């Protein structure tokens, strides 16, 4: 779709954690797991829409989970049922369709896009395990538990502790960069492929403004257009931090 976007109305909105909001919007668009939208519910300032990953989707509606961190998300969090907002998207490349037993590892707000991904994989009849870390308390526990074959929800600590990646054929991860880097390293050592979903500030969603440029093994790429999902080795390649 074009960058003009479509108008949607709020079907439901609720705070599910400390400044964590679950928003459901009616829209005729249909995303793929791992894609995102730019959401805007104001006329002037802030200038740009806010990029938010898809938590879930079904015919006629898309769900988002986001944290209130600034003026844009504050406005979105104050929306009420039947309020209107603009949706641009869906944008980006989502997680690929792969075969075998799949592990999804998430942390923080990186948990949200993994819900839609796990649910889609499970619907295909694949074995998918979901391992998620929460800073303070688990939110949307029932939804996460239903999305995967096995779900492990952790509060505090490192989500990678005690993780045996060798039991899986592919690993998907989304969350804080140190966590994703650790997961990619573990996958590398186990000899299995990994895919990461990275977060960057975004403006246009179509790769025109270069705001979301990220460094990869094969040169600079645009997170919104080339990503946000990349092969793990493209972002956290083995010699990235070595001093020449």
3D architecture notes:
- With 244 residues, this protein is of the alpha/beta class.
- The chain folds into two domains: 6-91, Beta Barrel (Elongation Factor Tu (Ef-tu), domain 3), CATH 2.40.30.10; 102-235, Rossmann fold (3-Layer(aba) Sandwich), CATH 3.40.50.80.
- The protein has helices at 71-77, 111-123, 141-147, 177-190, 223-226, 232-235, and strands spanning 6-17, 20-26, 36-40, 50-58, 61-67, 84-91, 102-107, 128-134, 150-155, 170-174, 194-197, 213-216, 219-222, 229-231.
- Strands 1-2-5-4-3-6 form a six-stranded antiparallel barrel.
- The mean pLDDT is 87.
Layout of SSEs?
Elements: E1 6-17, E2 20-26, E3 36-40, E4 50-58, E5 61-67, H1 71-77, E6 84-91, E7 102-107, H2 111-123, E8 128-134, H3 141-147, E9 150-155, E10 170-174, H4 177-190, E11 194-197, E12 213-216, E13 219-222, H5 223-226, E14 229-231, H6 232-235
Parallel strand pairs: 7-8, 7-10, 8-9, 10-11
Antiparallel strand pairs: 1-2, 1-6, 2-5, 3-4, 3-6, 4-5, 11-14, 12-13
Helical amount among residues, as a percent range?
A: 10-25%
Helix and strand sequence: EEEEEHEEHEHEEHEEEHEH
> If strands are numbered along the chain, what order do they take across the biggest sheet?
1-2-5-4-3-6
CATH architecture of the largest domain: 3-Layer(aba) Sandwich
**Total of DSSP H or I helical runs spanning 4+ residues:** 6
Question: What is the residue-averaged pLDDT?
Answer: 87
Main sheet?
Answer: 6 strands, antiparallel, barrel
Shape: globular
Low-confidence stretches: none
Q: Structural class of the helix and strand makeup?
A: alpha/beta
What name goes with the CATH superfamily of the largest domain?
Answer: Nucleotide-binding domain of ferredoxin-NADP reductase (FNR) module
Measured distance between first and last alpha carbons: 44 Å
* Secondary structure tally: strands: 14
Radius of gyration: 17 Å
How many distinct folded domains? 2
Briefly, what CATH class of the largest domain? Answer: Alpha Beta
Please report which band the strand proportion falls in: under 5%, 5-15%, 15-25%, 25-35%, 35-45% or over 45%: 35-45%
CATH topology of the largest domain, anyone?
A: Rossmann fold
């Amino acid at each position: 779709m074009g960058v003009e976007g479509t108008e949607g109305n709020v079907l439901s909105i609720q705070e599910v954690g400390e400044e964590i909001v679950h928003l459901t919007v009616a829209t005729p668009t249909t995303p793929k797991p791992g894609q995102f939208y730019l959401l805007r519910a104001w006329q002037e300032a802030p200038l740009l829409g806010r990029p938010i990953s898809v938590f879930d989707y079904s015919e006629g509606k898309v769900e988002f989970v986001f944290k209130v961190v600034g003026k844009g998300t504050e406005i979105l969090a104050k929306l009420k049922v039947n309020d209107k907002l603009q949706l641009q998207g869906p944008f980006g490349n989502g997680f690929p369709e792969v075969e075998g037993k799949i592990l999804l590892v998430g942390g923080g707000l990186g948990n949200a896009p993994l819900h839609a991904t796990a649910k889609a994989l499970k619907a295909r009849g694949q074995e998918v395990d979901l391992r998620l870390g929460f800073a303070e308390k688990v939110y949307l526990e029932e939804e996460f538990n239903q999305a995967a074959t096995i779900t492990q929800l952790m509060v505090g600590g490192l989500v990678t502790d005690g993780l045996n990646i060798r039991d899986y054929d592919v690993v998907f991860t989304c969350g804080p960069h140190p966590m994703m880097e650790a997961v990619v390293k573990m996958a590398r050592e186990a000899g299995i492929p990994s895919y990461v979903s990275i977060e960057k500030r975004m403006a246009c969603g179509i790769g025109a403004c270069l705001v979301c440029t990220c460094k990869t093994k094969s040169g600079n790429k645009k997170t919104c257009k080339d990503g946000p999902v990349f092969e793990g080795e493209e972002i956290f390649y083995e010699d990235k931090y070595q001093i020449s």
